[in-house]
User: Fold this.
Amino acid sequence: MSSGNMEEEQQLEEPLFILENGEVYRNPTEVKMSQIVLPCHANHCAELSVGQLLKWMDSTACLSAERHAGCSCITASMDDIHFEHTIGVGQVVNIQAKLNRAFNSSMEVGILVSCEDLFSERQWKVCNAFATFVARRTDSGKVQLKQILPRTQDEQMEYSIAAERRRMRLIHADIMKDLLSNGPVSRGECQEYQNAVPAEKTRVESVELVLPPHANHQVNTFGGQIMAWMENVATIAASRLCNAHPTLRTIDMFHFRGPSQVGDRVILRAIVNNTFKNSMEVGVRAEAYRGREPLRHINSAFMTFEVLDEDKKPRTLPRIRPEPVDGMRRYREAIARKKIRLDRKYIISCKQTEVPLSVPWDPSNQVYLSYNNVSALKMLAAKNNWVLSSEENKVSLYTLEENQFLSFRVEMKVDVPAERVFILLSDLSRRQEWDSHYKQCDVINQVDEDDVIYRVVTPSVSKDSKFQDFVLLASRRQPCDKGDPYVIALRSVTLPTHTATSDCNRGEVLCAGFTIWEESKTITKISYYNQATPGVMPYISTDIAGLSSRFYSTFCACSKFLEENKDGSPAVQSAAL
Ligand code: COA
Ligand code: ADP
Assistant:
């Protein structure tokens, strides 16, 4: 067992939350499961099998979804999981699941897995995950779920970002397909290595008969059971490559394409797609059939394994010799997926304040940067410790000091429909019309309907006379639901084609943008956010009064601009997911 070191140990048990009105609050959808790991749950190294853990995670999460839905639910997907530690026999696994958000017929459940050592009373995090469950259709069709009401700050954040995660999930397959077929790696050659292991040696095929214990009372196979079977064959393939015990580090998203039921035969096929210095990618495909019916594709997943030596350090792995055609294709795609995984981990799992400001933009990390951009703004907006600093003619300035960062929010209402405000403000090249700080704004790259990269030039904040310029990714979102705001998020990115020049100081924006709330058909509340970078902090914090009057005049100009342009173009072009 590789237990957590002292720094990583955490107080994982969430205390009951006391609301402002003194009420003791526990999320009504929260479900907990605790299991002591017995030899029957473990592999021959006395570590909990990941397959067993996936079954427990799936069933805990399913119970949370069903508690909200009040009817039977099925697993639609489980997002990428990164396992930080293994769990040993005799230790306790604690699983906590709660609903983050209900959409139409689907729900996102957040799952936290921790491990507890009963003898030392230590606890540490093993992984967290997000699963999507869908309420089973009834005879009258798709179920329309009731919405949840997030009550704490954490719940509000998860609720808001769940919409972003859902968007990513639904475009995931297309994005991957696009990146794999158009990325540079897809055309690369396969390197020949001496002593490479033929991929064929790692091929596994295994069949399972779905019996009643593998299914719920509606006879649908548990998603966790399918995932466990998939993990089993992947582990065999990985073991065949290295003739040792492999450790599963990450699983890419599981998406259940179609249902399976008691009586189905499930065929599981796995093979090592590629090996890297210290890790390997194993792919698994699960198909189901019944009698003489054709095979139905249920799921495909990609898992990354390492092999640890006695010091728990990853061993160097042998290279693989792929089979022709499909094997070669998978070999190249595994290289592309590895890059995508690294980008995703770097951009998504880091907190906004930890990510270096200048994240390089490229087409393969676009979707994650866009996610990071919008979710950072949503997190800032969901904070509940904003302090009102000044108010002038209904333009309010709020500030928030946290982790050495100063953020501000300016709020005002306008008599212009929300969608129109969204269209006008999301076109940054029109900002010059109301913001005197925008001296110049050029589109560098219209990435897609909702993401544009701009170069913006502003006056300098420092005493030298140089202008400042910014390379900004602007990502916009329409409301996912009626109660959601429109969002326009801005953050700095770097582009090799637009490096800093000697005539401008290159500035950086950590997190900025607008949320636009429809208060009525004609009245719209606009909030502008900006998290100040350490570079501009001294100028701001010494002059909040000056800042507020500058904001006031800028936002009066903004309001005038919106009102003057309130009649205009039709609805937004982008698809609201
Ligand atoms: N990840 C998460 N949610 C997804 C999804 C994915 N990859 N694909 C679809 N969904 C969601 C949709 O967003 C939609 O949510 P909403 O109603 O809240 O808007 C919901 O699933 C239903 O989508 P719909 O378009 O009506 O149906 P579909 O034909 O896409 O079917 C499933 C989606 C999940 C119902 C279907 O693929 C299925 O039955 N899968 C098997 C599920 C199962 O049996 N799991 C157990 C293990 S086998
Ligand atoms: P792709 O071939 O595009 O990767 P699939 O869904 O067909 O997508 O398969 C997913 C993974 O399952 C493959 O990458 C491969 O690792 C594994 N796999 C698919 N078919 C087989 C097979 N016949 N034998 C062994 N492994 C397979």
About this structure: The chain has a mean pLDDT of 89. Residues 74-77, 103-106, 132, 134, 142, 169-170, 220-221, 223, 226, 255-260, 298 surround coenzyme A (ligand 1) (CB under 6 Å). Residues 153-182 form the longest helix (30 residues). The chain has three domains: 7-182, 186-349, 366-576.
